[in-house]
Design a protein that fits this description.
Elements: E1 13-17, H1 34-45, E2 50-52, H2 81-86, H3 92-95, H4 107-128, H5 131-143, H6 145-160, H7 171-174, H8 178-187, H9 189-215, E3 219-224, H10 233-237, E4 252-256, E5 266-271, H11 275-280, H12 284-296, E6 299-302, E7 310-315, E8 325-328, H13 332-342, E9 347-349, H14 357-365, E10 370-373, H15 374-378, E11 395-398, H16 407-413, H17 416-426, H18 435-445, E12 450-454, H19 455-458, H20 488-500, H21 505-509
Parallel strand pairs: 1-2, 1-12, 2-3, 3-6, 6-9, 10-11, 11-12
Antiparallel strand pairs: 4-5, 4-7, 7-8
Helix pairs in contact: 5-6, 6-9, 12-13
């Protein structure tokens, strides 16, 4: 039995939420190269022990990391050109001469640029890579073949169809007829190898970055979305484990019901799992998915944890999430199987939204820490469980997440009643110039075992730095910071607050 090596969240600690795409650098998007290591060094200076990020898989629809083309693959757009130059796979002139926006990711410009660089790297690899690098590549392909072969073929077919969803391919390819698969593997063998090579580069760079961070006392929190994109290698290669119709379209799709924040609910559109079919396989796909993620990070946040107890199913084709119904999930049966196979599970349960006693019982059964968002304590449908004086220790306290406005932006649009409540709670007259740090002080001083703030709040940025807006399908996931924004004064201020509240590594040991 293969066991994961969990990093339990035991002592008081603090961290920062930042997706790698938001890192600075000259190539239009953050990557896994020098700027990522500089970011780790910044966390060390600020006495932060945790770096949290969003899913790292290749993005599809609207560039969202929650609508990925595979749950196992890495995002090739995060591959560092500078590291490829060091490896001799690119020349310095290959990466020069382009200018990108330093504060926003222009995916329309970045993706073809990165794809072109990776094609050059592949050609250089074929012509002149060292024997050692070639052996590493072949070993990677052999070790990851359980998902890599299907993913590389899926991507090669997708490229051959101009990026069209697999629902639009010829029936024999949609249905993975053996003869059609054999022909595709032969005719697209060069494209398939390129996609395998890109994954090799991503995971090679990622493992080096993780080793760099861990060696300096910084641990990584990853993210597993409960659902996967319908247009993904996962659904295409395992249709029997999803609720699809005869045309392999989703019978029902995922979302959440209407609430205070949305009169029509949120319609995500992901297909639902056929949990009975997955049970018959011993939840093999889920075990492989969690194992693969925990090889990349130290702890994983499981998005929409309540969906494992019961999930909102909306008829396929509906325009809103209003006509859905709650349908029971696998509950403890799945997590018992995961724990029996992988050992203790270092999981953070995203328990936001409508949380029933049954959902809370599922979380506490495994001692998974839940999440508390400070903005929710004061804004909109005020929930008292988000007020710090109501926290329990087994909690992760956040000022906000990738789905919230920045704290400064949120406060600027809050009602007078909401602002008054914030001021009464913090005990002084806070305004837009200090509210981000006021909420950070509340999180850091609470009993929660871990406190995290998005970097936007550390930098006290307004709405233009917002990462995502749930329910709006385009124009998001683009924010980046510049190296000049992250001053030594800001890092030292964060480090001082972290030490004062017993969340720095040495002080945490004494609390």
């Amino acid at each position: 039995m293969t066991k994961v090596n969990p990093t339990p969240l035991q002592s008081r600690a603090a961290g920062v939420l930042l997706h790698p795409t938001s890192l600075p650098g000259p190539y239009g998007i953050g990557d896994l190269g020098p700027a990522a290591r500089a970011w780790v060094d910044a966390l060390v200076r600020a006495k932060q022990q945790w770096w949290q990020m969003l899913p790292l898989s290749p993005t599809g629809y609207a560039d969202s990391p929650y609508q990925c083309l595979s749950t196992f693959a890495g995002n090739p757009n995060l591959i560092s050109p500078d590291e490829l130059v060091k490896d001799g796979l690119l020349r310095r002139r290959d990466v020069a001469g382009r200018s990108f926006d330093a504060r926003r990711v222009d995916f329309g410009a970045v993706i073809p640029f990165k794809t072109g660089l990776l094609a050059k790297a592949w050609n250089h690899f074929k012509r002149g890579a060292t024997r050692r690098l070639k052996r590493e590549f072949e070993r990677f392909c052999a070790e990851e073949k359980s998902w890599l072969k299907d993913f590389a073929l899926f991507m090669a077919l997708k490229d051959a169809h101009g990026g069209a969803s697999w629902f639009e391919w010829k029936p024999e390819l949609m249905e993975r007829k053996p003869a059609a698969m054999a022909r595709a593997r032969e005719s697209l063998k060069h494209a398939i190898r390129q996609h395998e090579f890109r994954q090799f580069l991503f995971f090679r760079q990622w493992r080096a970055l993780k080793a760099y961070a861990n060696a300096r006392g910084v641990k990584l929190i990853g993210d597993i979305p409960i659902f996967v994109s319908g247009d993904s290698a996962d659904v295409w290669s395992r249709p029997a484990e999803f609720l699809l119709d005869q045309q392999r379209r989703p019978k029902v799709v995922a979302g959440v019901p209407p609430d205070y924040f949305s009169k029509t609910g949120q319609l995500w559109g992901n297909p639902h799992y056929d949990w009975k079919a997955m049970k018959r396989t011993g939840y093999r796909w889920w075990i492989a998915r969690v194992r693969a993620t925990l090889r990349m990070v130290d702890v994983v946040r499981v998005d929409h944890f309540r969906g494992f107890e019961a999930a909102w199913q909306v008829p396929g084709g509906d325009a809103t999430a209003q006509r859905g119904r709650w349908v029971k999930g696998p509950g403890a049966e799945l997590f018992d199987k995961l724990r029996a196979t992988l050992g203790p599970l270092p999981i953070i349960a995203e328990d936001l939204g409508v949380i029933t006693p049954a959902v809370d019982a599922l979380r506490t059964r495994y001692n998974f820490p839940g999440m508390r968002i400070l903005q929710f304590a004061f804004g909109g449908a005020v929930e008292h469980r988000f007020l710090p004086h109501n926290y329990e220790r087994n909690t992760i306290a956040y000022t906000g997440t990738h789905d919230n406005d920045t704290t400064r932006g949120w406060f600027a649009t809050a009602s007078r009643k909401e602002r008054t409540l914030v001021r009464r709670y913090v005990g002084h007259h806070c305004d837009g110039r200090n509210v981000s740090w006021d909420l950070m002080h509340l999180a850091w001083s609470s009993v929660a075992k871990l406190s995290i703030a998005p970097l936007q709040d550390v930098l006290n940025l307004d709405t233009e730095a917002r990462m995502n807006f749930p329910g709006q399908s385009s124009g998001w996931w683009r924010w980046r910071f510049t190296a000049s924004q992250l001053s030594g004064a800001v890092l030292d201020r964060l480090g001082d607050m972290t030490e004062v509240y017993g969340r720095a590594a040495k002080t945490a040991e004494r609390t």
